[in-house]
Design goal:
CATH class of the domain at 48-128 and 138-158: Alpha Beta
Helix content: 40-55%
CATH superfamily of the domain at 48-128 and 138-158: CBS-domain
Oligomer: single chain
Strand content: 5-15%
Structural class: alpha/beta
Radius of gyration: 24 Å
Distance between the termini: 50 Å
């Protein structure tokens, strides 16, 4: 069987149709939420079985690269599936590397293939292939029916389905660099991201999945900034890890999300301190120049930059003594995820896992979450049309994120996404599957609405009546879940 890792951001795709228009005053795309047309099928919901065409090229692992190159050219294939166990894949890029490395043409394909491959089932929607390509930086996804490869979806197949493809944006990011970290090619990145988000909303993709796409593109930008900075500064004096925090760490970013970053390196030396301080400065400046705002709270690698053993001591202090100030810092770092670098930061995950046995920080998280409960009017009614846009974050997405952190910590889970944390809580019998599904559905609805606001709409006042009812149900679900948290983690809040 092909060993693949399907990407699923969780949540139920909402079927809202978004009408895209261009604001002539601002020159940017904006979105208006409408009800779906009857029987509407969006492009990214298309099953992969409907996207793949002819059968792929199969070659045994003992085939030479010369023969594979010939077969790919004659059949006009961009890749070949290698029938090894587990299966592998060879692309034009792999063959180009063989030539660049001056390896002999009789090199067997088993020595140059990528294996195991990342595959998806034939019934999976096209959006899954898109997310997998962005997440893994690949251009070919084998499609399975049972255990058999029946086709390969390529980046070109995905781009054909979209008017503004995130794969094209990712490619532009990877090619940027002629002007260094301030390359003019990146100046239009915010507009490109807005176009991608508007296109995905128009295809009926829910906000949780769009947020994952935005985060993947921000990851690609960060990696490129690091490459450019290392080109200027020279080889790092030791291994390091660039860490994403907050919404970037959770892969749940919106268009206006700011920088939340940190940097860990192996050992504290004078050379390491100077080098990584300069690296953090260059990358932070580069991200800001490309339209990613600096964090007003200072959660950036320019400040949070230290050796790994010091990070361990810091984390232990947060878990053992969750005071008000330390809790604010700890919550952002609960979402940490390595984006680039060779340093293994698994020890930080193991340190955070100790939170499972720390009722103090769990109680503090629960109390914080309940402070952001959606406000209800008379008879317990919630009127989303009367909420200012900022309230959708403070009274909607923020408490869901906080509950995800709470239950993920209580489950001792290394998961960083809100969906992953809630599912880990279900597996640990901390919450029911229905509760997790309801919260994730609510999260997707709220993120979709906030994404439309990022694109220039005056939400929720412009939403249709069905969409307002959906938003009202999402806020009600948040309120119910927060009340339930008082049963497992009682206390004021």
């Amino acid at each position: 069987m092909i060993d693949g890792r399907p990407v699923d951001s969780g949540g139920t795709p909402d079927c809202t149709c978004i009408v895209i228009r261009v604001d002539s005053r601002a020159g940017r795309p904006s979105a208006v939420a409408r009800g779906p047309e009857a029987g509407q099928e969006t492009a990214l919901a298309t099953p992969l079985s409907d996207v793949i065409g002819r059968e792929p090229l199969f070659v045994p692992p003992s085939t030479t690269v010369a023969d594979v190159a010939l077969a790919m050219r004659e059949g006009n294939h961009s890749c070949a599936v290698v029938t090894s166990r587990p299966h592998g894949i060879v692309t034009h890029g792999d063959l180009a590397r063989v030539v660049a490395e001056r390896r002999p043409s009789d090199t067997v394909v088993e020595q140059v293939m990528s294996s195991p491959v990342h595959a998806l089932p034939a019934g999976a929607p096209l959006i899954r292939a898109l997310l997998l390509m962005l997440d893994e930086g690949i251009e070919h996804v084998p499609v399975l029916r049972g255990n058999r490869v029946v086709g390969v979806v390529t980046d070109v197949d995905v781009m054909r389905q979209q008017s503004a493809s995130p794969l094209l944006v990712a490619d532009r990011i990877r090619r940027a660099g002629a002007g260094g970290a301030h390359d003019p090619a990146l100046a239009d990145l915010p507009t490109d991201l807005a176009g991608v988000a508007a296109s995905l909303l128009g295809d009926g993709v829910d906000g949780l999945r769009i947020a994952a796409v935005v985060a993947s593109l921000r990851d690609a930008l960060t990696i490129r900034m690091l490459e450019l900075a290392e080109r200027e500064l020279g080889r790092p004096p030791g291994p390091y890890a660039w860490l994403a925090l907050g919404s970037q760490g959770r892969m749940e970013q919106l268009l206006h999300s700011d920088q939340d970053t940190a940097l860990a390196f192996a050992e504290q030396t004078e050379e390491a301190g100077e080098y990584f301080a300069a690296l953090a400065e260059r990358v932070t400046d580069g991200l800001a120049a490309a339209g990613v705002p600096r964090c007003p709270g200072g959660f950036m690698a320019t400040r949070w930059n230290r050796p790994l053993d010091e990070w361990q001591r810091t984390f232990r202090g947060w878990l053992d003594e969750p005071h008000a100030r330390s809790l604010l810092d700890a919550q952002v770092f609960l979402d940490l995820r390595p984006v680039a670098g060779e340093l293994d930061v698994g020890v930080l995950d193991r340190t955070l896992a100790r939170g499972r046995d720390r009722p103090g920080i769990q109680l503090a998280l629960a109390q914080t979450a309940r402070r952001f409960a959606p406000r209800a009017g008379r008879f317990g009614r919630i009127r989303p049309d009367r909420l200012p846009p900022a309230e959708l974050k403070l009274r909607g997405t923020v408490p869901i994120v906080l509950l995800g952190r709470l239950y993920g910590l209580a489950a001792g889970s290394p998961e960083r996404t809100t969906a992953g944390r809630l599912r880990a809580a279900v597996a640990a019998n901390l919450i029911s599957g229905d509760t997790a599904d309801t919260l994730l559905d609510a999260y997707a609805v709220l993120l979709s609405t906030r994404m439309a606001a990022d694109l220039g709409e005056e939400v929720p006042s412009t939403l249709s009546a069905p969409r307002r009812r959906e938003l009202q149900g999402a806020l009600r679900a948040v309120r119910t879940a927060l009340r339930a948290s008082a049963l497992t983690h009682p206390g004021p809040g």
